[in-house]
Please model this.
Amino acid sequence: MATFVGFAVLVTALIHLYLWKRLVRDTTRPGRWRKAGGASALLLALLVPATMVGTRNGSYWLAWPGYLWLALMFYLLVLLLVLEVPMAVAKLVLRRRERAATGAAAEPVPVPAGGTGRADTAAAGHVAEPAAAGPTATSPVALAEPPAALAEAGSAGSAEPPAGEDSGPRPAGSQDGRDPAGDRPDHDPSRRLLLARGAAIFAGLTAAGVTGYGVRTAMGPPRLDRVRIPLAKLPRGMDGLRIATVSDIHLGPLRGRAHTERIVAMINRLDADLVAVVGDLVDGSVAELGTAVEPLRDLRSRYGSFFVTGNHEYYSGVEEWVREVDRLGLRVLQNERQEIRARGGVLDLAGVNDVTAAGTGLAAPADYAAALGDRDPSRPVVLLAHQPVAAHEAAKFGVDLQLSGHTHGGQMVPFNLLVKLQQPVVSGLGEVDGTKVYVTNGAGFWGPPVRVGAPPQVTLVELRAP
Model:
């Protein structure tokens, strides 16, 4: 745990450092505004771990500001990283234009013979020829005895610079007569500042809009999805057996009793044969959330309501929660199975503890042999397992269908792409080693009260005979 916390703090610090660079340093000039932005970035960086720790210790007032910033931070990071490519291209174009303009300004401009100023012709590297007839410019007399006007001008120091110095005009901004082009930056600072501010404004407005949409989706009612899944071994009499499936309700700092009541009412309207609650019911202790869970006692189904533990139950006092859920009338399947006799047929409904569980007794890890071994192989078996990854082991025991949650469907796009690295199915119906796996998005959320691309969900699974 200490290693995980240390890693999380390091990642959070690096993200905020990057956001400070792109949103503060690159968009402001040195001064009080940059200092204020730096102080804000530091406070927001500290808010993230403070929220993680504080909400677990009862400081629920940190939940809204802390988790909202976590979502906004995530989308700012994603958008700014995506903008890095067009920003780099734009900077390259500006740099090349500035270099081209600097090179054009440094080229000498030729002056025709008989021009109006000797200083200009001298600067061009030419010796002017006198317009009137007389000694040529190359004669000894011309070199030794310059005209009086030229001599007077030379004595005044207005046309002929001292030997060894440049005779051309001094560029603007030069203090010593040298061309400062070599000291110029290879970009226009004002244009670079405008570009950085444009990217920051775009990222900020887009991230705020996406986060606002995600809050509205997450806090709204779950969507009802219906899915039909054929099972080869399902008896004809059990065709159409319906299982109301819900997971990841996540009662806690931002969700309470009203959320449970809404889900229970939604499930009861389905008039399902079975109810399966597939883990991650709570984020807190029985003392904190016992009242919020009580509406589960009102769940209605023909053949029973069942529950399996998720990983968050093990963070919240799993022994107490197993007893509490059982008291409310849900059968907790802990590495065991239950025969479901309906319509003249039999189906095995099994459940295993979460794969992250450890220890003994109620906290024992998943035991597939205990739940699935020594059974009639002619019967269809449906397994309740919180994490889809359990299907790799379940398939070894010939499981026909596994119902899971845990992934939240990714919860916040594009986070779903990372979930695929850990879980074989992120959302919906898939197959793992010959076992069908259905993954529901879950009815709640964890952390940020934001869902983008993965709305909250309750699913009615209808089993079909061949």
Summary: The radius of gyration is 38 Å.
